[in-house]
């Protein structure tokens, strides 16, 4: 019978009366409605008795009205707290029962007057106490704080469980109305919830329960801890294994952001490839440096890097990188080498009873359970380090080699202990094939154009509240991490990578020097397979003190020559018999039209043709350019006055003889090294 109310007290001096009396009256005003209700009940009982005191039908009507009013009160209070609903129903039931009795028998009959004098003040005081104890934003509006908030965003029927409060993170389970709401309703309301709490959109997330369509967890991070700048301070686990987590940065609640590359059967975690996506200025460079310094600080991993930007960001790390290739042909060679390395590594792992790469695979194989010998005794084979193939600014490589250049690699590399990391600005379907994108299960999504969010993150992560498009390039280093090993409730949690400044260069150089001296070297299988494709283009990590690199031990063991380079001739041996004073030879057929590409020029035959082509291929091989095409021979043809059709024909003949092998790109050939390591 007592309606909901909110009192608005006045300060001293406000109102019409002024003085202490007016102040006390204004302070008492919020507490008067329950007492007015008690007084109204007494007047209603007296007037009802005067009107219906002798009427039996009125008694029936009043009784039914009392029951109906109590039921309506209970029904209307269904969206309020359980305590308030019960309190309201008891108050209305007690008041309406007394009024009914007073109307029929009289307000002074029997115990009715005593009940009124004792029960009325108790009921009124109970509401006064309730008002004093309640919070302004809670039941003052007739609802609990959570219920009022949910009603504002259209989820009034939802129920919130006991919240788990952590430093700068609140997680609350939520159950939606059965048959009326689904998890999609919460997803659509996240923006309204962030508005109601006056927080950025990225601070409110929802993690649906995979086993229920109406249950999940609401995560609220009230303070953006990522706004604080954190500079790179060195590797997190120097000398550890690549199987240990790699530290990228931290989440918005201060927790560390970790990434795993190899799989772990005990943790039920598969190996993974990684896509790094973000617009220009979003912080891809710092993200790459965080990962690369972590990789180079581990003792059982090799890093191969392709960078069309000529190592602009990564030059301090070059001494620790096992193979660094610039864009264009060097990257083309690396991709071809990977296609040979992967099956070779898979074969070795299978022979040594590894279903996937494990840290013990990088050690010397002294365990009989991992022996390649038929008799089961320990084989003692050299271990095989993990391999990370990093394709920086991969859009350039994909344009040059085709959008499916990494498809075979990405689909087969994980079983070979190889992780492919692809970094580009916009992983749209016109730049990367859907097969390759599907084979890159992990993603580090930095700020991007809002229209590109779907290219970077799965729909379920976007539905949970992730919005990298909200950052663009205004918050470098802000990112979302979706990867195996990372809890799913973290997928929609923003993080920030550590920043690299000019002060970080010395730390990068220290990490590279450590990797150069203490890092893993390529095993004979990996080194041999790479050199069988790349030839001199792959020589392994530079030797300390020598910036030009030196062959791996696995390659040096099969070098055909071991002579001192100081004794090598300073000129081509074929030029020894040439007399510099001798007249030039007479012009030959075709010398008058040396323009390349017009089909004219000399067309040598027989032994001279074979010698010229062999010299050209040997020259390219010596320079490490193992992928060639007719356009690469233009300068060479100009020097020898040879026609392009003749060169194309000879390349085809060399391919038939096994000196060249076709590549995935039409018109491009791979030089088969003349001396392939065993």
Automatic annotation (TrEMBL):
The reply on keyword Translocase is no
| UniProt biased composition (Acidic residues) | 574-584
Domain FtsK intervals: 254-455
- Chain residues that bind ATP: 278-285
Segment Disordered: which positions? 560-608
A molecular function (GO) held by this record is: ATP binding
This chain belongs to the protein called: Sporulation protein SsgA
Q: Write down the species.
A: Streptomyces liliiviolaceus
